[in-house]
Amino acid sequence: MAMVELAILMPLLVMLVFGVFELGRALYQEQLITKAATAGARYMTRAYGALDQDCATQSSWDSAVDNAKTLTVFAGQETPLITNLELSDVAVAVTRRVLPSPASPVCVIQLTVTLPFASIFGETLVPFTSIGVMTLNASAEAVYIGE
Length: 147
Known about the structure:
This protein is an alpha+beta fold. It is built from 2 helices and 3 strands; from the N terminus they run ααβββ. It has helices at about 1-45, 60-75, and strands spanning about 90-100, 105-115, 135-145. Strands 1-2-3 form a 3-stranded antiparallel beta sheet, with helices on one face. Strand 1 and strand 2 form a beta hairpin. The longest helix has about 45 residues, at about 1-45. The chain is elongated and about 75 Å long.
């Protein structure tokens, strides 16, 4: 009788344990890319001469974006922070906004990272289910200083 109960409950327990494990991995990786996006955005705020007063890109913009992407992906290491994180997963944009205080236009740098979560189970997030793989997203905004 105990073997029958174990046979019935074992798949549920396996799904629960591995589901919690994968969710923990996903949250950890989301935190990593959020911190990396923040570091990349902060780098861009200090990229001297990358933008003019009207938020138009200047000659040093492309090299500053490349450096910010490299910082976001590698964080000063030789290997990426996350195995499947690539430079193409990082996007940098600039917008001109008027902030409430002081009421003057500023250039806001937005750095976003979009990365499909690589589950250890391949196509499914949790074994024995049809739950698909999720996408990890991180975004950071900072006001351009340029000094």
